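TA notes. Do not distribute before section.
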Amino acid sequence: MEGRRTLPIPSWMSFGGSWAISPPGRARLRTQKIKKYDAYVAGCAGLDVVVCLKLVYDETQIPVEGDKLLLERAPVKLSDIDKNALEEAVRIKERAGGRVTAVTVVTGPYDEAVLNEAIAMGVDRAIVVRGLSGHNPAKTAKAVAEVLKGKEISYDLILCGEGSSDQYSCAFAPMLAEYLSIPVITFVGRLEVNGTTLRAERLLETGYEVVEVSLPAVVSVTSEINEPRIPSVLQIMKAGKREKIVISSEELDIAAPELIISEVKAYVKERMRRRIEGDIEAALNEILRVLEEKGVVP
């Protein structure tokens, strides 16, 4: 991607002919033009931030029968940490100007009302890729890369959650960066953008690591980076009226390594339902014997 853009001076910034206006009028005109130019710069010189959103089944509300997940009866939600990525994208736009583009690749459940709620947080443009199925992060990453390259979507920074609420493979961000041939920083809990340089703090188990890269780059964020805002009902209603760009997967080259998930089962706890009676010493010895038999204690 090319470096930052150089903005042309708009013709309406000229003060030619304003000499005929009285001094107080010229001062007001100058103030108006400066405000208009500030808005023009904010709209044109800010960052183009792309945020990747995934819709998933709400794992806290999936009915279970035996070891079977009844997904058809589960509600849909925006993947939890994707909300943090979206919030960070909107905050960057609010600080530095620019535009937020949301890209959603539908590979499973889809609920437009949920997507509208996400758009209402501050998305300027939404792109929905339909026609894919399965849960292959490589294909999803390839689809997003193809959309950005094929549809000439400009980007300075691409944000996503560290992992999705359903799979949590944490593979999407590195794969997307590989397909776009740009740097990636994962597990980011804090980031700053200065010009074309991104400074990020990666959260590790034993501390944090500070990393700097030149934009454009892909960044996966953690839930610690911010507290997502809750849009108003009016904002959600307005978002629902905005047109989304829908792209069929048939228009894209989504060839990627295959991932086959043969079966997903609910975790079932099996209880022994055994009652141990007798005096306390004999009961404790029996409990220890059973725990050793099951391999709980050595």
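Switch to the second chain here.
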Amino acid sequence: MNFFKRTVPLFIAFTMGVMMAFQYYVPHEMSQSLLKIVSRWGITIGGFAVFLGAYSLFHLHLTKIKRKLSGWGYSIFVFFGAGITIIFGLYNGGEFFWNDKQEGTMFEWIYFNVQVPAGATMFSILAFFMASAAYRTFKARTNEATILLIAAIIVMLGRVPIGTMISQYIPVAADWIMSVPNMAAKRGILIGVSIGAIATSLKIIFGIERAYLGGGD
């Protein structure tokens, strides 16, 4: 069984990883066609992740309801909301799901009057968390925090009309901070992330990283 659980997935990961890495350096029509085919397969397989995600969500909330865990009452609304949405989605305004999507259906009403406001509310709450995090970060407890605080004040003033009213140099300084130190930091982070992605990819290709097999070793 280890052959099918370990060896075959490792062989597939190594083969496809090497092929996809080298296809970038082979500008041949066959190589480009292979990339398109594999990309389509990736999108198709990724679609099945929706079903896995739905199963995981329902299993989690069903377990909370069975065990009467904290907040289990909210889990009932998950099944209620998902059931109503799925039913109206399949109903498709009376044309059912095998026909083209209809306009002005109850499914659209749920999306624009429930889903969109709920998402906007969530992001609005995140704004308060960001403000709280910014307050804690910008406390001038160290020299680095003081520099960060001064830079943030200059950038914020440089992005509003009152900054120009105070001094014409504030917008110039804000642009310099954004285009020089900020851009250098962003590029440094991007380079670090890219190196980390390459290292992780190599570990997966050569079978060093095997967490995706489920064993964690």
